[in-house]
C-alpha cells in the first residue's frame, strides 16, 4: 500500500509504502467488523463538517480488510533543491507500537485554513526562523502541522525553495490547543520583529 498526503505532490514531505498481507475481515454489516466500523465513524465525527465525506465511513456492503504490516518504507524529501531523498525502514514491531499523531486528521484542514487566512503569520514565522527579510522572500507556504511543530516551504527571489521546521513549545493534542499555540507564536514573532 502506497500512501502520500493529499494535495499537491510538490508539497509532499514524506511518502510511505507499507508491505504486508491483506486479511479479509468480512463485510461492513458483519459483527466481526464492528470495531473497524466504529473506529471510522469516530474519526469522521472528529473532522470539521466541511472535511467529512461519505467515503470516511464503513458501509454495510463494503468488504473490510486489515493490513498486517511486515515493513514500512518512509521516504522523506531531504533537500528541495536537489530532490535528494532519505529512506527509513520501519520494522513490524516498531510499526505496531507507533501511534497516530493526534493532529493527523485535523492538520489538512488547518493547513488549508492558515494558508488562506493567516498568511501574514506564515511569512512572519519564515522570516523569524530564517533571518531573511520580507523584501527577499518570494513565497511562503505552510506544508504540514503535527503535534510537535510545523513545516513551511519558502523561497527567496532567484533561489530554489527550501523547507524549515518550527517546533512548538509543548506537545499539542487537539485543534483548540493548536489554534492557541499558533496564535501565541504569531504574537511572539510579531513582537520580536516590530520596530523598537
Radius of gyration: 20 Å
**In percent terms, what proportion of residues is strand?**
25-35%
- Rounded average pLDDT: 85
Query: How can the largest sheet be summarized?
Result: 4 strands, antiparallel
Note the gap between the termini.
54 Å
* H/E element sequence: EEHEEHHHEEEH
Q: Which strand order do you get reading across the main beta sheet?
A: 1-2-3-4
Overall body shape: globular
Question: Could you please describe the fold and organization of this structure?
Answer:
The chain is globular, with a radius of gyration of 20 Å. Helix 3 (107-117) crosses helix 4 and helix 4 crosses helix 5. It is 31% helix and 32% strand. The strands form two sheets. The protein has a four-stranded antiparallel beta sheet. It has a three-stranded antiparallel beta sheet with strand order 5-6-7. It is α+β, with helices and mostly antiparallel strands and 196 residues long. Strand 5 (137-146) and strand 6 (149-156) form a beta hairpin.
Brief write-up:
With 196 residues, the chain is an alpha+beta fold.
List keywords for this structure.
196 residues; alpha+beta; four-stranded antiparallel β-sheet; 5 helices
Produce the secondary structure layout.
Elements: E1 2-3, E2 14-27, H1 34-46, E3 63-77, E4 85-91, H2 92-97, H3 107-117, H4 119-130, E5 137-146, E6 149-156, E7 162-167, H5 175-193
Helix pairs in contact: 3-4, 4-5
Amino acid at each position: 500500500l502506497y500512501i502520500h498526503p493529499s494535495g499537491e505532490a510538490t508539497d509532499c514531505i514524506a511518502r510511505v509504502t507499507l508491505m504486508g498481507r491483506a486479511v479479509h475481515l468480512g463485510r461492513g454489516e458483519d459483527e466481526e467488523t464492528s470495531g473497524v466500523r466504529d473506529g471510522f465513524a469516530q474519526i469522521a465525527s472528529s473532522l470539521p463538517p466541511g472535511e467529512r465525506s461519505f467515503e470516511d465511513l464503513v458501509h454495510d456492503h463494503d468488504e473490510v480488510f486489515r493490513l498486517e504490516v511486515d515493513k514500512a518504507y518512509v521516504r522523506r524529501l531531504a533537500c528541495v533543491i536537489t530532490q535528494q531523498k532519505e529512506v527509513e525502514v520501519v520494522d513490524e514491531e516498531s510499526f505496531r507500537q507507533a501511534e497516530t499523531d493526534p493532529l493527523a486528521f485535523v492538520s489538512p484542514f488547518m493547513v488549508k485554513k492558515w494558508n488562506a487566512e493567516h498568511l501574514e503569520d506564515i511569512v512572519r514565522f519564515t522570516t523569524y526562523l530564517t533571518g531573511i527579510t520580507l523584501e527577499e522572500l518570494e513565497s511562503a507556504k505552510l506544508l504540514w502541522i503535527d503535534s510537535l511543530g510545523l513545516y513551511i516551504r519558502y523561497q527567496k527571489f532567484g533561489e530554489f525553495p527550501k523547507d524549515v521546521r518550527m517546533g512548538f513549545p509543548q506537545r499539542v493534542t487537539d485543534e483548540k490547543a493548536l489554534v492557541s499555540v499558533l496564535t501565541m507564536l504569531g504574537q511572539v514573532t510579531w513582537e520580536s520583529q516590530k520596530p523598537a
